[in-house]
Design a protein that fits this description.
Chain lengths: 288, 288
Amino acid sequence: MKDILRKAIERELPQINNYLDKLLPSENAPPEIVHKAMRYSVFSGGKRLRPLMTIESFRWAGGSGDEIYPFACAIEIIHAYSLIHDDLPAMDDDDFRRNKPTCHKVFGEAIAILAGDALHALAFEILARSGKVEIVEDVAKAIGTYGLVGGQVADIEFEGCDVSEGDVRFIHERKTGALFTAAVRVGAIFADADENALNAITNYAKNVGLAFQITDDLLDLKGNLKKKGSNIYSDLKLDKATYPRAVGKERAFKIAEKLVQDAKKVLPDDRDNELLNAIADFVLERTY
Amino acid sequence: MKDILRKAIERELPQINNYLDKLLPSENAPPEIVHKAMRYSVFSGGKRLRPLMTIESFRWAGGSGDEIYPFACAIEIIHAYSLIHDDLPAMDDDDFRRNKPTCHKVFGEAIAILAGDALHALAFEILARSGKVEIVEDVAKAIGTYGLVGGQVADIEFEGCDVSEGDVRFIHERKTGALFTAAVRVGAIFADADENALNAITNYAKNVGLAFQITDDLLDLKGNLKKKGSNIYSDLKLDKATYPRAVGKERAFKIAEKLVQDAKKVLPDDRDNELLNAIADFVLERTY
């Protein structure tokens, strides 16, 4: 990991967690059980890569100050909601995530479904406070049937099927790419980025998101529970559509490398792209 | 049912359904299966009482024109999402609603969960187009853990317990009341209602919503599948907290009558309250 990224994570992660703590309802507020479940899932040790991208996109586009943090956290809250629902027995049926029992294993299925629903609504409550309806609309589109949910549906439909590179791309652009894209767009729109900058960082995030999903799949193949912290082989178990399955491990990594190159290329030279480039590079280096 | 309400339903229901049809993704757009599931649930013959209240609240508060319809539909879309998740095996485990198999019985649990999630996101995409972030924030709050989701959680927690009138009120104010309230507030805020009018119609809807849930519980007791169209006794089956269970049938109906009276009383005399009053009265007369 490049120094600039390590320092950014050291600086931003405590801030992000601090804001998340303030934004989520207290465990002592009734109905306690669902607030506990929401906090359990949000504070389960995520890398906070998506909110970091929102914050950096905001600064990259000329924004300054701390006002961006709640909206960066809203993206992480959506990520947490989608993981809770994704892990449910009716979906991927995962018992562990990041070395901890999944939400429904601890709180039961009903509370897990409702905790996901509550995080989903909370994210929009927070995003509305940005004062910008375009941010709300943009994120809502990204997580609907043409984005995140659409990717999950296709993921389920392709289980056990022969998949082409195009099929996997379709799934991952939605399942992972859409929220990466939303993350940077929230930051850039909040900073009043012009259309060129917004388009550039959108394309950057599309490529990074897709590369991230490929290295995720590759880590699943060679990973172990301790390192990656989720059910190893859980996607293999279900015969999920993945890049390694569609094109083989070596070609999958080559595609990820090309995507990271492309991501860095679309950023205009006259801006400070150093941290964004380091994030893109990290996607290829990561071991967890 | 009063003539003015019958005519309003005859006039508005086709319009509401027409807008819903335009707002929901086509069944032919991929991923088809989730779009089919969303449409199946939204077009399963609801009374459209909530969007009707949004439209009437908008006009009552001085609004005119057709711009309100999409936002009224967004409320109905949220209602559909909450019913899909509420019917899931892990929740109320209902096989029928409105005489038709529930979403998960037709499409499976995974697609039902995702269809609910997609409707949830779609509602916010539509609400954002109102241009008013306060509408987005208001609705998001109403359906989070201090509203709709909170009511569902309490409903689950109180299953099989002895309940007081206060407990049932806590549940139903959230589970049913919150979305009724959001429905009228969206209309009034979109019409730029002043604070007095907004408070009045909010209190009206709180009372109507609670009365609606009481008569719903009473219909469950005496109803039959043909009339009410959902699993009869489904709430009794699970030993749910209901007004009839907490205070008996007669007192429950008396409470509903008082709530309807109160609802009508809070509306200021200098406005045209006729349709709102007819809706409140209908809650006591309804047989389905």
